[in-house]
Amino acid sequence: MQPKKPMRPINQTLQRQITAIGYILGFMLFSITFDWVYLKLSNNSFLVFYLNQIAIISRDCIGFLAPENKVFVHNNALLSANAYLEVDASCSGSDFLLPMAAAMLVFKTSLKQKLFGIIFAAVLISALNLARIVILYLIKCYQPIWFVPVHEYIAPGFNIIVCCLYFLYWALPAKPVFTE
Prior knowledge:
This protein is mainly α.
């Protein structure tokens, strides 16, 4: 017969539940705040400038990978004789970066690790989105039937998997939230 484990005191269990609720509320507060700020930026010229830069870099990558496509950028859109692809606010990576940044900010770890994690996440998500735009443009040129499934399912799913794996990698050295 095994000895019975001592029960945790009520106040310790309650403290853990309050801490968990605090993390959830903190995540929601950061997410809502980031989303509000981003929506305020969506009509701003800064966002338009940023999206135009993404389109220009995408054009350069396409020119390197498929030089036969003479791609031009006009009003955040990639244009050629073969395809038209608009780079809009959803191509900025905010759908992935803002929730990840909110989760990192409420995670129990040092400010240095949080900042490093958010900066690297921004770089990673920017690279993923750049690759996604280039691939979508090339698909639209050469295999247009695959555009919708890749745009709506495959590319976002891939980004979600990569972002989750990065968050797990980032969170491994952090202190555990609940300790026995």
